[in-house]
Amino acid sequence: MAFDLAMHLARLYDVGNRNRHVNSRDVASIPLTIRLLRQKRCQRELRARARNWIPGSRSYADQFERDCANALERVSASYSETFKGQFGRGGLKTLKAFRDTFMAHSLMTDVDVKPIYNQLFRLTDCAKAFVENARIAVSGDNSSLDEQERIFLDQGNDFWRMALLGERHGA
Questions:
Q1: Residue 110, pLDDT above cutoff 70
Q2: What is the 3-state secondary structure (H, E, C) of the chain?
Q3: Rounded to an integer, what distance in angstroms lies between the CA atom of residue 9 and that of residue 7?
Q4: Least enclosed by CB within 10 Å: which of 56, 83, 103, 114?
Q5: For position 103, what pLDDT does the model report?
Q6: Residue 9 has pLDDT above 90, yes or no
Q7: Which distant-in-sequence residues (6+ apart) come within 8 Å of 26 by Cβ?
Q8: CA 7/CA 25 separation, integer angstroms
Q9: Where are the beta strands (DSSP E) in 13-108?
Q10: Rounded to whole angstroms, how far apart are CA atoms 35 and 111?
Q11: What local confidence, expressed as pLDDT, does residue 74 receive?
């Protein structure tokens, strides 16, 4: 499971082939998304779109535009936060080396580079904060990934209580 999580995180933080122009790289990742979301023209367009999150309702247009601008600020701050702390930048370096040498080329090289759980959890938390705020800025969707995680945890606990203890739901 840790290897699977590491691969997903490696894709999320992949900058793509640096020999190709940024706009023609064949990856969809957080670093390339932040590059777009930090551009003034992109921010202007997203704020203009936010004014119409509820079509035909002008009473909330200014508030929606402010919400979008605030979400864009949080997106930028959450991405910058990724590189801070003991498991941030080091975790990204380890993750890239793990992906490039162990996962992608395991038959060619024998490298003992493995991310530790704290690095994976740190990068997952940073990605979660980034995605939540980017969703608000781009589409006005304010769903919480923490809430979805809590729901999945409750469902998992219910399953194991029934499977291991024979308890029924709600009993």
A1: no
A2: CHHHHHHHHHHHCCCCCCCCCHHHCCCCCHHHHHHHHCCHHHHHHHHHHHCCCCCCCCCCHHHHHHHHHHHHHHHHHHHHHCCCCCCCHHHHHHHHHHHHHHHCCCCCCCCCCCCCHHHHHHHHHHHHHHHHHHHHHHHCCCCCHHHHHHHHHHHHHHHHHHHHHCCCCCC
A3: 5
A4: 56
A5: 64
A6: no
A7: 16, 17
A8: 19
A9: none
A10: 32
A11: 94
Can you tell me the mean pLDDT for 138-150? 84
Q: What is the end-to-end Cα distance of the chain in Å, rounded?
A: 32
Query: Which has more pLDDT, 72 or 144?
Result: 72
Q: Which two tokens stand for residue 123?
A: 């990068």
- Two tokens, residue 9: 């995180």
Distance CA 105, CA 100 (A): 7
